Amino acid sequence: MTITAGNVTDYDYITKDMLKVFETIQIQCVNYDKWNATQWAIAAVEQGLPLQEYSQTIGNFNQPTKELERLLLSGKVVIDNNEITRWCFRNVELKEDWNGNVKPVKRLQMKKIDGVIAMIMSLGGYLNNPFDNSEIFII
């Protein structure tokens, strides 16, 4: 995760940063939440990024959230020493519906969980469309 200058999202910076990664790593898919992202998605696809919409509903988040928890508890996924990632994980609570589906939510509005959401969306996209798992894959 990269912090950018200012208090608004710099979509050009994000796209350029992703394209740099795309040059060195074969990215299969970039999952994104379509809310307020139409113009960015159009521009990113035109520049060659393989985007896939990923709705942030509790139904979409249930399986990958539970799988990430399982992977963390089994030691198969380790949260790196990135302070932002650890801060995001500390801010997460799980919201459960009457069917036992879970989704991460913020404890407080001012606390951010974007890093956790990005991991879960990436894992969810992979679980929906798995590719050759002999490759290294980053969430």
TrEMBL record:
A single Pfam family it belongs to is TerL_nuclease
Domain of life, source organism: Bacteria
Domain named Terminase large subunit-like endonuclease: residues: 8-124
Molecular function (GO) terms for this protein are:
endonuclease activity
Ranges in a coiled coil: none
Cited InterPro entries: TerL_nuclease, Terminase_largesu-like
- Name by which UniProt lists this protein: Phage terminase
Q: Which organism is it from?
A: Prevotella dentalis (strain ATCC 49559 / DSM 3688 / JCM 13448 / NCTC 12043 / ES 2772) (Mitsuokella dentalis)
Q: What is the lineage of its organism?
A: Bacteria, Pseudomonadati, Bacteroidota, Bacteroidia, Bacteroidales
